[in-house]
Amino acid sequence: MKTILAKVDLSQPDSAEVIQTAAKILQEGGLVAFPTETVYGLGGNGLDSAACEKIYLAKGRPSDNPLILHISEFEELNPIVGEISPAAKKLMDAFWPGPLTMVFPKSEIVPEKATGGLDTVAVRFPSHPVARAIIRAAGLPIAAPSANSSGKPSPTSAKHVFDDMDGRIRLIIDGGESDVGLESTVISLVGEKPCILRPGGVTKAMLEEVIGPVDLAGSILRPLEKGEKALSPGMMYKHYSPDGQVTLIEGEESAVVEALRRLYTDADSEGHRACVMCFTEHVEALADCHPHDIGHKEDASEVAHRLFATLRDLDDEKMDVIFSEVVPPEGVGLAVMNRLGRAGAFRTVNAEEIIRI
Ligand code: AMP
Ligand code: MG
């Protein structure tokens, strides 16, 4: 299959034609990748089992890992869900359109292919104008998981999508870099208490301000234990993973910088293709350690924005040993550490212990 890459700038008159082409492909059951404010999505008709099947195939995604349906107007929610609770209404008012996905009981028109066999459905109303224009033009709820091959870091640019999806889908819409850079926050509203299944740009504190106490799924900052059932099926799988081994370094700032230097030096002398992922403030001190700048240390949103692109660069550079700084797991930092932790199978060492050796 030939994959077409098309730039869209909604301020230009020719963008309408590209949006119509995308809509037509979706209506015919084909796949189109498009930008959203979180990461790039791989879109297909969310009401068509065959289109959903194509998404799983293109991504190499396990079929029990459900898709998120994307809408472009509030009115499009009713037909695809069962009951909408008062808490869900409040969250919709506060955060939609935006990077929040809510899990509802599903309605009959949503095929089990879209929900991985579950009787619930995850829905998001994205704010990105290109995503909204495509969904509106298609006139369908669009199933759109991240447009990466399963197990790779999510794509935050059209080039990332092309690297993974060339030859597998008909069209990739290039709308520039994704703003947030991490996938949406997923909150379930079907249990007794609202529960965050996946942290993202909409933080626990922001949610609690609107609906009161919410739970956090247990496996956000650790691997699932043997026999533990994932509340969010995506958490079962190795995810967000570069080819190299990522190790996280915790501890006091100066100890971390010193530990990064020692670990890098040892790995380099053993013949590894090694590097460090460090804050902007430490790039100079680690200039000899192949530094990758992940953003300023006090700015978790900047780290979120850069994280996946950095992980992909490490693959392009064929790095096999990677040492990374960490952010405090609070606010957006919780989402960063969920992804970074999973990129390295939660392998963490303490800086002071490295320096003591
Ligand atoms: P992605 O579309 O790749 O960002 O992943 C979507 C994620 O949302 C899945 O991996 C699940 O963890 C979560 N999700 C989607 N639908 C449901 C659902 N019905 N119940 C619980 N989690 C869901
Ligand atoms: Mg994904």
Polypeptide structure, described:
With 357 residues, this protein is of the alpha/beta class. The protein has helices spanning 15-27, 49-59, 86-95, 112-115, 129-138, 158-165, 204-211, 253-269, 300-316, 332-343, 351-356; strands spanning 4-7, 32-34, 41-45, 68-70, 100-105, 120-124, 142-143, 171-174, 185-188, 195-198, 215-216, 245-250, 274-278, 291-293, 321-324, 348-350. The strands form two sheets. The chain has an eleven-stranded mixed sheet with strand order 1-8-2-3-7-4-6-5-9-10-11, sandwiched between helices. A hairpin with a 6-residue loop joins strand 2 (32-34) and strand 3. Helix 1 crosses helix 5 and helix 9 (300-316) packs parallel to helix 10. The termini are far apart. Residues 65-68, 103, 115, 118, 120-122, 145-146, 183, 186, 188, 197-198, 232-234 line the site of adenosine monophosphate (AMP).
Gross geometry: globular
| Helix-residue proportion | 25-40%
* First and last CA, distance: 55 Å
The beta-strand count equals 16
Could you tell me the strand content as a percent range? 15-25%
Q: Rounded to an integer, what's the Rg over CA atoms?
A: 20 Å
Order of helices and strands: EHEEHEHEHEHEHEEEHEEHEEHEHEH
Mean pLDDT: 94
Low-confidence stretches: none
Structural class: alpha/beta
Strand order of the largest sheet: 1-8-2-3-7-4-6-5-9-10-11
- Major sheet size, sense and barrel closure: 11 strands, mixed
Instruction: Enumerate the distinct ligands.
Output: adenosine monophosphate, magnesium ion
